[in-house]
Design goal:
Structural class: mainly alpha
Shape: globular
Order of helices and strands: HHHHHHHHHHHH
Helix content: over 70%
Number of helices: 12
Radius of gyration: 22 Å
Strand content: under 5%
Mean pLDDT: 87
Amino acid sequence: MKYAAADLWSSRITNVLFFLCIVPTLISMSVIYVMNNDVIRLLLSGGSNAAAPKIAIDERFFYGMLQGQCWPALVLTAWIGPKLIAGDLANDALPTILSHPITRLEYVVAKLTVLAAFLSAITWVPMSLLFFFQAYMSPQPWAWAHIHILLGLLVGTMLWIALLSLLSIALASWVKWRIVATGLVFATVFVPAGVGTVFNAVMRTTWGNLINLPYIMVTLWRRLLHVSIPAMFERYELPTTALLIALTCMCVLCAMALNARIRAREVVRG
């Protein structure tokens, strides 16, 4: 874990991507501060109370913030995920590493832990801080009445982190070239989404969304945060149970791919 984390931070691109992923948090913090400060709002409106900017800090606000943090996390994962394991495979280092008192499970968990720590630093950690910042800034008791927002943020980001971590490591274990593995992360997320959309259009159904990962995650995030949608669209929604089963199947497939690839063996040619 120590060497993997140090290797990731040594890249300038990683540092730049990490900073860019924090930008939505800084913007959201500024919005929360302004919306809870009447003096600044009046200054921004030129002294007119009617023209003062008004943005409700509620479930919909944190829902937008959740998407603003989680989708950049996909970009960061596509960059750093393959780097964690592709080098060991490309240089046939796994037999040497696993010859030490390190099991395959420990090796994989160590890599996943490093990636999960990176993703946590740009998802649930800053969003939790923003939740408590809003609770502190609000002139009215706010935290307990909106505790479901915090729980939704934690559960939603944990699901996203688990899926991204397994997906990126699994793809990198089968592709030795880092750039190819990075492209496969994006392809695995968005190509099935397009296929599912075509399936829905042809078959006149919505069950094709079960392979549409962006739809699955956005829908789960919205339901976890209790964000409502117009009643006319509710009949097109898939059950939460079906979405969770689809997400679980994706994680299981990634785990199976890792189990098949991470082995202490060498190929001897002669």
